[in-house]
Design brief:
This protein is of the alpha+beta class. It has 2 domains: 230 residues, Periplasmic binding protein-like II (D-Maltodextrin-Binding Protein, domain 2, 3-Layer(aba) Sandwich); 222 residues, Dipeptide-binding Protein, domain 3. It contains 15 helices and 25 strands. The chain has a 7-stranded mixed sheet with strand order 8-9-10-1-11-21-12. The protein has a 4-stranded antiparallel sheet with strand order 4-5-7-6, with helices on one face. Helix 8 packs antiparallel against helix 10, helix 9 packs antiparallel against helix 11 and helix 14 runs antiparallel to helix 15. It is globular, with a radius of gyration of 23 Å. It comes from Rhizobium acidisoli. This is ABC transporter substrate-binding protein.
């Protein structure tokens, strides 16, 4: 039960391992083992002690007081105290750090006080209800200030207080983690206390699905993510293997349409594109029934998900053609694509080829064929991570795709508030119309939050700011000898309690 190395094959890569400066899901999977959080969130969504043994919140959610466990240290031997927590959050709030996602999770902070070595007080300018949920995520995990102050770059190193220590991270290859022998401050939801069971964890980047699957079947790795859709049932039927699926809460995998320039500046063109996409058929073609098509911008397991949005939109080719006619795209060129004023109706789908898996490319090719029936030329523009960032920051794209995992609907602020237009975050849609409601919702009562988020979901889909595609899910293929995997509320596997039978 104790010892050994767990080897995990990952389908996608991350360019950055510092969880404070990325929203990458892969970074979250790896660094959950390296950094601890102030609070934990159990699978039943309750909040439990972790680095903070207890906390108080004032009546209007504007002052949070955290009392830290004593004796916690970072892996470099320095103490994890109130000053360290304050340093981490101040760093995230500093514009020079470019912590767009982590910063959005912290919300509109007024000031942070380290009252004494064991007490941190966070003051807000106005009510901020979602803080505990954000604090439970690895993006707000606490890192060693001593390390952070010395590091010239944190893109490939992390020093935290977690059950494992990062031995190495190499972009395009993977990460090696080693057990911390003196770890003794796990989250309240953990099944055991003390050090982790494995001596180490190796995360290997294996982008080819056949290679990943072969490594699992042969025992070279004990777990993989993104079980290939074509092999899903055969893995499930293998007596030595298992597939565990966890649907993601948060923003569904969607196409986000750039409203700031033509052609998607025109609402009718956006609605036409949305109507020309047969999401259910495209998702079935790409994922062979292993993932659910999305019927809303939020996944069903997200707080305040509105099931009524599904009836307000959907595939309708006749409607798409009618809307494009109304928008003035009435002519067609020799290739059958619509034109207007001598310009072809071309939209560029820009994506990072390392973080968008093969099945997503298959899905995009299905959509490419679908929207062509309405006269859209849908161009796939694969780029590397640097190229993707450059295209986003210079507003050189028509649509992008991604998903964000969070059980709290405040995730919509991260994706649709104009404060987070690239390079400041993930508002690739570049809208301002939702700002007031998104800001109001973070401090409202439960009833008002439900109403506001319902209105926001309706506008996002109704105005075709996005085309929801599928409910992303973490699909863990694993040896049946692997036990003790638990799940975070962001649908990520947790390895602290995990062990292998001989």
């Amino acid at each position: 039960m104790e010892g050994g190395t767990l080897t995990v094959g990952l389908a996608t890569d991350t360019a950055i391992i510092d969880p404070s400066i990325t929203g990458s899901s892969i970074t979250a999977v790896i660094t959950r083992n390296l950094v601890d959080s102030l609070v934990g969130q159990a699978e039943d969504n309750s909040f439990v002690p972790w680095l903070a043994e207890r906390w108080e919140i004032n009546s209007d959610n504007s002052v949070y007081t955290f009392h830290l466990k004593q004796g916690v240290t970072f892996s470099d031997g320095t103490p994890l105290d109130a000053a360290a927590v304050k340093y981490n959050f101040d760093r995230i709030l500093d514009p020079k750090t470019t912590s767009s996602y982590a910063k959005s999770l912290l919300g509109p902070i007024d000031k942070i006080e380290a009252v004494d070595t064991g007490t941190v007080v966070i003051h807000y300018k106005k009510s901020f209800a979602p803080l505990l949920q954000g604090l439970s995520l690895p993006y707000l995990g606490i890192q060693s200030p001593t390390y952070l102050q010395k590091a010239t770059s944190t893109t490939n190193t992390v020093v935290g207080s977690g059950p494992y220590i990062l031995e190495s991270f190499v972009k395009g290859s993977g990460s090696k983690l080693t057990r911390r022998a003196d770890y003794n401050w796990g989250p309240g939801y953990a099944k055991h206390a003390g050090p982790a069971h494995f001596n180490g964890i190796d995360f290997k980047y294996l982008p080819e699905s056949s290679v990943r699957l072969g490594a699992l079947a042969s025992g070279q790795v004990q777990a993989i993510d993104e079980v290939p859709p074509a092999n899903y049932r055969s893995v499930q039927g293998d007596e030595k293997l298992q597939v565990v699926t966890r649907e993601n809460p948060g923003v569904n995998n969607s196409y986000f349409l750039n409203t700031s320039k033509e052609p998607f500046q025109d609402t009718k063109v956006r609605q036409a594109f949305q109507s020309a996409v047969n999401g259910a058929a495209a998702v079935k073609a790409a994922y062979l029934g292993t993932l659910k098509p999305a019927d809303n911008i939020l996944g069903p397991s997200t707080l305040y998900y509105d099931s009524g949005v599904a009836s307000k939109w959907g595939f309708d080719l006749a409607k798409a053609n009618e809307l494009l006619d109304e928008a003035g795209w009435t002519k067609k060129d020799a290739d059958g694509f619509r034109t207007k004023d001598g310009r072809r109706l071309t939209v560029h789908y820009v994506y990072d080829s390392a973080s968008v898996g093969a099945s997503n490319v298959t899905l995009a090719q299905a959509v490419q064929y679908q929207v062509r029936q309405a006269g859209f030329e849908f161009q796939l523009d694969p780029v590397d991570a640097g190229g993707y960032t450059a295209r986003a920051n210079s507003n050189d794209y028509d649509l992008v795709s991604f998903f964000y995992v969070r059980a709290e609907p405040d995730i919509l602020r991260t994706v649709f508030h104009s404060a987070y237009v690239p390079p400041n975050g993930s508002d690739y849609v570049r809208v301002t119309s939702l700002d007031e409601k998104l800001s109001k919702a973070i401090g409202a009562s439960d009833a008002e939050r439900k109403q506001l988020y319902g209105e926001i979901q309706s506008e996002i889909v109704g105005q075709a700011y996005a085309v929801p595609l599928f409910v992303a899910a973490y699909q863990l293929g694993a040896s049946k000898k692997l036990h003790g995997i638990s799940w975070a509320t962001n649908a990520k596997p947790l390895f602290y309690d995990a062990w292998l039978e001989p």
